[in-house]
Specification:
Radius of gyration: 20 Å
Helix content: over 70%
Structural class: mainly alpha
Low-confidence stretches: none
Amino acid sequence: MAYGSTLLLTLTNPATIFSFIAIFAGLGITQTSESSSVTLVFGVFTGSIGWWLVLVSGVTHLRNRLTPERLTRFNQWSTKVFGGLILGFGIAALVV
């Protein structure tokens, strides 16, 4: 039940639909043959399944290794690193 409802929500998510429309239009994939369309949809579907398998495998692998102390340490470290990256990108955008 949970899988089906999540799949339905994902398939009907307007952000997902519009992002794929934008990507396909940007790549010039507007009118193709039926076999090309089926291949494209199959490729996107396969890629999505692969991505979710990687995420689930990673969570399964790290589940017992992440203690509250380690998560706190990681959050403190990552906040500084990613904050610095965002600041650097912001400065680079202003300079260029």
